[in-house]
Each structure stands twice: as structure tokens, then as C-alpha cells.
């Protein structure tokens, strides 16, 4: 049992996948791993304590500790127009919002305020380095918040997102903070054009592993793509808020969230057996972000390979990760469970503090020096075509189906909002109607709520919607950002019941589904319990 003064979390891993596969060729195997984190040990066994110390990769020299926070404001002064305040009003609103973030900083936090428009720089402290939060530094910082807004015409204050990220990277370069985080507030006045087509991508590659970043967008001049890319690559979130009290509340809430993070970073180790290849690895809940999988060198020795990835800012809650593997049944026994890979959280083997390099060698499947919980990824090859085909529709592997189908409906929603922003009303209604039909069938309450803000839903089951005449570009873009938040799969929850059977063909279905994926028949509530009673597939 960890001491009362030691920060950390109890972690429990579970894996969900379809294990029965027809042994005819090299196949793509998908599995979803669920990581449940608890501040206190759960009553049921299986959770393992992960201490906070020593988990922050990339810090220079010594034990990482404390929090370093940068608050950056990427605003243009702008001109007054209907629905938008002028420069002085924006300065006052911004000063209040930034002041709320400063007030939320606990004593001892290292922080700096960034501003300056075309030439991003440190507004406070005046030394250009770091201030340490306390009564006097917070008072001085609040006084300087008005200087975060640039002066001059809007076209004279434009820079690029890459320039802001480069400044943050330089600020964090020599720090030893366990949490290194940037909060960027932008109205889209910089964009990414000033850095060239590849400038943002190059800077994100340079920043990876050095700090994390949240992006808050205001106004209606920003684009979804660059903000999502920044938040995804730098392990943060992207959202859009109003410029007044809402911005101040979100800034303060983000700072408090950093304080609540009990594990600044955790390595994930995926070890694959000989002959198995890791194709992709991605976080799929609560947000979707892909990790870069390095190809093994041509001269790599035969044997299991361990891929290591760094994850960040863990608090109590649930995350889900999807693994894609290729494996061949050639020469393997039939009807037996075989371990293709192992997923370990919090390993402390070579390179365990982070990185995305793959290390080969004779290490046993399970990961070298894995310190945290681990789960196997199993497959069972069969020569029974009918049995393998039927298992596609059973409860086992429901998390994989859940995330694949949610991606489909979110893609339709995102494309529908883009069409609405371009003024293509007919195409927008067609795409948003398709998203509505899929969301209604899956009982996706989050997406249905977002849809209700941009369309009038006339027939959810039939996908008939009408675009709201009063929907603003800001609301369309904000809903695009929020649609990318992904609730965890109900299929992967500990003790989750099987989803209902189809009364017509007997096939299983994805959790929460209303209609059979095989024949289209409506599903009856409680049918899953009947499968339990007759001894069918279980979770």
C-alpha cells in the first residue's frame, strides 16, 4: 500500500477482442485495452498501484517534480463589428480571463504569460524566464495580463501557431518539471500559413515529448484542423469557448486539472511475439489520437519486439487504446488460445520513461521490466468457417465494433458541418441526417445533443433533419471539436452484461444497438440476459 503522501493511482487493465479467427491467411487482428484508474484501491482485486514519481520522461537531469505552466494568448486586436467587441473590450475580457488562470495557480507553480502578436514573447515575468506562484507574483501577473494582447492592426500582428510552440519548446527546454503544459488561447488570427505548409508539422515533431498543450479557441476566425492537430500531437484537448466569463472559467478549470493529474506521464509497452507485427496503436477514448509506430530496422534480430509509447496526465477515470496486429496462422495449432502480444502500463525497462522506439531482442513476451499491470492479446485459430463467421456478431470484441461505428458517425457529422460552413445546405443536411440516423441507432447521446444544436431533427430513425437557420459558424466549429470526444465503450466496462441477441437470426450485437447488424431486425431489451442463461458468449 502506498504511503499517504505518495501520489499515484491504482490501475486495472482489461482487453476486449474477437478471439476466434478462421485460419486461412495473414489477418489483421484488433483489440481494445481499457485502463481504469482509481485514487483508492477498488474492492475487487486486480488493480495495481502506480506511483507518480519518476514517470515524467524528457526532463533534464534529476528527479522531475512540480508543475510548469505557460499561458499564451494568440489574439489580433480586431475591429468592432456586429456580435464582436472592439479591441479595448477584448483586452479587458482577456485580462479578466487570464487573471482567473493566474489566481488558480497553487503556490510553488512555475509559470509565465506569453503574448506579443507577430513576435511572441514573455509578457511576465519581465526576466523572460519563470515566475513562482505566490501572493506577490500572482498580483504582478494580473497587472500584466493586458499586455498579452498585441497592439496595432490585425494584419500587423499575425504570426503562426508554430512560432508559439517554438517559444514554449525553448521555455521548457531546461526545466525539470514533472508536468510541463501550455495553454494556448487563440482567435485564429495567426493560423498556420505563416509557417509554410510543413512548418506546423515540423514544430509539432520537435515539441513531441517535451510538453503537453491544450487549445482554447474564441471567435469565429479559427479552423478546426490545426487546433485538433496541435491538441492531438501534444496530448491535450481542443475546445471553443466564449470570450467572457466562460473563457476565464475554462482557463481556471484547466489549471486545476493539471494540479489534479496524479501521474504526469506513463509509458505503455506493447510486446509482440515473433512473426507478429504491430500495425497501429491509438488512444480511442476519451479522445482519439494515433501514436507513431516505428518500423523495425531491416537488420533487426528475430524474436519478440517491444514498442514503447509515452502517455501523459493521468487522473482517475478511464482510457481505451486500440491495437492493430497482423498475424499468420501458418504452422500454429488450431483450437488453442495463443498469445500474440502483451500490453503493459507503467513499464520501467530500457526506454520505459517514454519514446516511440521499438526495441527487439530475446525479451519474453510481456515486456522487459514491466512494473505495472499487463494483459495478453490472445487469438484462437479455427478451421470452422461457420463458427468464425458467427463470432463476428457475438459480444466478444464489442469494443472494437463500438469504436469503428462511432468513427463512421462522427466522420459524417464533421463532413456535414464543413458543408454547412461552405454554404452547401443540401449536402450538409444529407450528411448530418446520416450521422443522426447512426447516432439514434446507437443511442449516442453526446452526438445527438450536438446535432440538436445545429439541426432540427424531424425523423431521427430515418435521418431526416433540417439545418437551423440561425446556427453560427462558431457553433458549427465548436461542435466539430466536441464531437471528437469519445465515451468509453460500454462493452469494455468491468462486469458489463452481453448486448442483446437478435430475435430473428440470433446474432449478437454491439452494446446499445437498437437494430441487428446482420439482418436489421429491431432488438428486444433483455435478450442479452437470455444468452447468459443458455451459456452463450460472455464478456
UniProtKB/TrEMBL annotation:
<protein>
    <submittedName>
        <fullName>VWA domain-containing protein</fullName>
    </submittedName>
</protein>
<feature type="region of interest" description="Disordered">
    <location>
        <begin position="482"/>
        <end position="513"/>
    </location>
</feature>
<dbReference type="InterPro" id="IPR002035">
    <property type="entry name" value="VWF_A"/>
</dbReference>
<feature type="compositionally biased region" description="Low complexity">
    <location>
        <begin position="503"/>
        <end position="513"/>
    </location>
</feature>
<feature type="compositionally biased region" description="Pro residues">
    <location>
        <begin position="487"/>
        <end position="502"/>
    </location>
</feature>
<dbReference type="InterPro" id="IPR036465">
    <property type="entry name" value="vWFA_dom_sf"/>
</dbReference>
<dbReference type="Pfam" id="PF13768">
    <property type="entry name" value="VWA_3"/>
</dbReference>
<feature type="domain" description="VWFA">
    <location>
        <begin position="93"/>
        <end position="238"/>
    </location>
</feature>
Amino acid at each position: 500500500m502506498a504511503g499517504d503522501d505518495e501520489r499515484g493511482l491504482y490501475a486495472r487493465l482489461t482487453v476486449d477482442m474477437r478471439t476466434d479467427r478462421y485460419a486461412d491467411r495473414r489477418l489483421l487482428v484488433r483489440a481494445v485495452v481499457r485502463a481504469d484508474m482509481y485514487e483508492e484501491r477498488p474492492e475487487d482485486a486486480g488493480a495495481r498501484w502506480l506511483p507518480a514519481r519518476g514517470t515524467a520522461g524528457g526532463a533534464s537531469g534529476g528527479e522531475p517534480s512540480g508543475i510548469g505552466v505557460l499561458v499564451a494568448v494568440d489574439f489580433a486586436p480586431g475591429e468592432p463589428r456586429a456580435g464582436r467587441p472592439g479591441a479595448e473590450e477584448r483586452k479587458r475580457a482577456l485580462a479578466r480571463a487570464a487573471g482567473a488562470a493566474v489566481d488558480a495557480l497553487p503556490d510553488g507553480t512555475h509559470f509565465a504569460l506569453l503574448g506579443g502578436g507577430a513576435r511572441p514573447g514573455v509578457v511576465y515575468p519581465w526576466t523572460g524566464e519563470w515566475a513562482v506562484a505566490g501572493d506577490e507574483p500572482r498580483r504582478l501577473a494580473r497587472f500584466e495580463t493586458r499586455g498579452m494582447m498585441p497592439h496595432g492592426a490585425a494584419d500587423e500582428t499575425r504570426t503562426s501557431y508554430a512560432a508559439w510552440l517554438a517559444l514554449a519548446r525553448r521555455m521548457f527546454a531546461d526545466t525539470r518539471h514533472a508536468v510541463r503544459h501550455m495553454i494556448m488561447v487563440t482567435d485564429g488570427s495567426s493560423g498556420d500559413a505563416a509557417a509554410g505548409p510543413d512548418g506546423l508539422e515540423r514544430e509539432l515533431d520537435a515539441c513531441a515529448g517535451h510538453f503537453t498543450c491544450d487549445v482554447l479557441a474564441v471567435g469565429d476566425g479559427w479552423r478546426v484542423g490545426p487546433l485538433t492537430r496541435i491538441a492531438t500531437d501534444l496530448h491535450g484537448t481542443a475546445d471553443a469557448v466564449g470570450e467572457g466569463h466562460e473563457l476565464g472559467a475554462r482557463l481556471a478549470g484547466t489549471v486545476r486539472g493539471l494540479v489534479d493529474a496524479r501521474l504526469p506521464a506513463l509509458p505503455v509497452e506493447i510486446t509482440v511475439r515473433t512473426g507478429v507485427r504491430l500495425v497501429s496503436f491509438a488512444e480511442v477514448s476519451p479522445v482519439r489520437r494515433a501514436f507513431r509506430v516505428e518500423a523495425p530496422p531491416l537488420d533487426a534480430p528475430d524474436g519478440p519486439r517491444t514498442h514503447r509509447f509515452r502517455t501523459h496526465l493521468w487522473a482517475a477515470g478511464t482510457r481505451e487504446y486500440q491495437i492493430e496486429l497482423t498475424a499468420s496462422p501458418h504452422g500454429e495449432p488450431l483450437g488453442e488460445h495463443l498469445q500474440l502480444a502483451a500490453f503493459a502500463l507503467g513499464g520501467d525497462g530500457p526506454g520505459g520513461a517514454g519514446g516511440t522506439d521499438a526495441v527487439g531482442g530475446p525479451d519474453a513476451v510481456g515486456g522487459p521490466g514491466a512494473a505495472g499491470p499487463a494483459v495478453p492479446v490472445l487469438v484462437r485459430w479455427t478451421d470452422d468457417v461457420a463458427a468464425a463467421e458467427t463470432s463476428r456478431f457475438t459480444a466478444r470484441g464489442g469494443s472494437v465494433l463500438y469504436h469503428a461505428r462511432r468513427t463512421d458517425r462522427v466522420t459524417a457529422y464533421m463532413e456535414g458541418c464543413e458543408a454547412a460552413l461552405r454554404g452547401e445546405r443540401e449536402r450538409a443536411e444529407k450528411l448530418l441526417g446520416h450521422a443522426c440516423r447512426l447516432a439514434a441507432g446507437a443511442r449516442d447521446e453526446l452526438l445527438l445533443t450536438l446535432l440538436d444544436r445545429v439541426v432540427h431533427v424531424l425523423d431521427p430513425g430515418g435521418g431526416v433533419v433540417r439545418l437551423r437557420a440561425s446556427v453560427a459558424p462558431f457553433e458549427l466549429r465548436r461542435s466539430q471539436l466536441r464531437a471528437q470526444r469519445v465515451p468509453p465503450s460500454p462493452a469494455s466496462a468491468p462486469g458489463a452484461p452481453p448486448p442483446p441477441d437478435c430475435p430473428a437470426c440470433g446474432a449478437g450485437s454491439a452494446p446499445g444497438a437498437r437494430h441487428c447488424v446482420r439482418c436489421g431486425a429491431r432488438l428486444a431489451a433483455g435478450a442479452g440476459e437470455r444468452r447468459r442463461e443458455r451459456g452463450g458468449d460472455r464478456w
